[in-house]
Amino acid sequence: MIARVLEHSALLGCSWDMLGWFSSKAPVQDDFTDPSVVPVPYHQLSVANELSGYLGRLDRNQYQALQDLKQFCHERSFDLSKFVHGPAETEDHLLLRFLRARSFDQAKARTMLEGDIEWRMSNNIYSILSLDTPSLHQCDPVDVQRVLPIIHSGFDKQGRPVIFKKMGRSCVIDDLLAVSPVGNLVRFHSWCQEKAIELCKESSDRLGVHVETAVFVIDAEGWSIKLASRTAYDYLRQIADMDNLHYPERLGQVYIINSPSALAIAWGIISRWLDPVTRNKINFLRGKNEYEPALLQLMEAEELLECYGGKKKVEEWEWGAMAGVPQKNRSEELID
Question: Which of 150, 174, 204, 295 has the fewest CB atoms within 10 Å around its CB?
Answer without folding.
Answer: 174
